[in-house]
UniProtKB/TrEMBL annotation:
Pfam families according to UniProt: CbiA
Species in which this protein is naturally found: Desulfamplus magnetovallimortis
Residue stretches making up the CobQ/CobB/MinD/ParA nucleotide binding domain: 3-31
InterPro entries according to UniProt: CobQ/CobB/MinD/ParA_Nub-bd_dom, P-loop_NTPase
Protein name (record): CobQ/CobB/MinD/ParA nucleotide binding domain-containing protein
Domain of life: Bacteria
Length: 33
């Protein structure tokens, strides 16, 4: 899904992916650390 979103929206899709990754990382850090 991430790849298709990036291909469809281009730059905006990449920034959205970056934000989702940062949010996911923060959630994982809260769970494990």
């Amino acid at each position: 899904m991430i790849i298709t979103i990036g291909n469809n929206k281009g730059g905006t899709g990449k920034t959205a992916i970056a934000t989702h990754l940062s949010i996911a990382l923060s959630k994982f850090k809260k769970k494990f650390y």
